[in-house]
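debug: dumping io for the single-chain case to check the tokenizer round-trip. Nothing else runs in this session.
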Amino acid sequence: MRDEGERVTPLELFFDLVFVLALTQCTQLMADDPTWEGVAQAMLILAVLWWSWGGYAWLTSVINPEEGAVRLAIFAAMAAFLVVALCVPEAFGDLGLLFAGAYGVVRLAHIALFWIASREDPDLRGSVVSLAVSSAVGVGLLAAASFLDGAAQGALWGLAVVLDYGGPYFFGAAGWRLVAEHFAERFGLIVIIALGESIVAIGAGVTGDVTAGIVAAAVLGVTLASMMWWAYFDVVALVAVRRLAQIEDRREQNEQARDSYSYLHLPMVAGIILVALGMKKTLEHVDDPLETVPAFALIGGLAIYLLAHVAFRYRNVHTISVRRLVLGVALFALLPLAPEISALATLAIVTAVACCLIAYETIRYAEARDRVRHQLASATAAPGPQG
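debug: decoded output
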């Protein structure tokens, strides 16, 4: 079983590598089909993959994945997850049934390990049973969707996501267990992995000579990714993990973890993946205007990321970041401008907006920021009061 104060293990990071491929596949799916339908399909696939990965984050906050036969079970789950990732480009096509079958194996391994871990905890066992029910329904709907196409197929995928995500909400969260610092660290690392996908997208978007425009776009892209990293890791991540660790009531802590991390980190990651698509398309044609969908991905992706931060902060400390809320909404006003200017100019504007936000917050709240960073960084280095 997982002990208090333990950090993320090398095996957990190794497991996350298959999720890296899954994110790359989602970005590539949208790049190959830059339409609203392509984006909708990629977001549905991302939601399914995210829920599966998040389940293993909860699992490894209960059991140590490097002990005993658990290590072998994690390897098996990785193999199944890899097959799922390989099926992403055709998940709504010829590989839909294989996608659902491999995804079912991933979920089955997850439930089986949780079942073993809950043998001496009746409350946890009850939660595992309810999760098994919602998981079976979700996998079944995905399998059924593989025999359909068009709107009916998309509707079944959407229903599968809603019912699967709704399971822990409607069945309650009292039975789950977690180690707060370890749990939050897992989600922080996956945000870094998603941001890494935006860096990969910059390289993937370069298909010809490295011109001055491409160099400028690459520098702007890295700067934008850095500002998104800053927005999360400078203070937000520290405050959130400390808040989670301080909650002593098991139900309340689990609900906080479910809402803040399992639910609200999804739009953060989705926003990052959309930005990655926008960067990739920008690097492909820096001098041409972005088409409607890639422009939405670049501008709207950042907006979704910031609005997810607003919801994340409200769920944790019950206050609203007015700056990020206003900026997130205002970014959508830039969408009509994108078809009239070059992709490089659009990227420059979006990056400048992100830089201004971070610069303002850093300067305006310098003293409070410094105090919070030093206090919380030292506090999270020690085990929390309860896991």
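debug: round-trip ok. The two ends are 12 Å apart (CA to CA).
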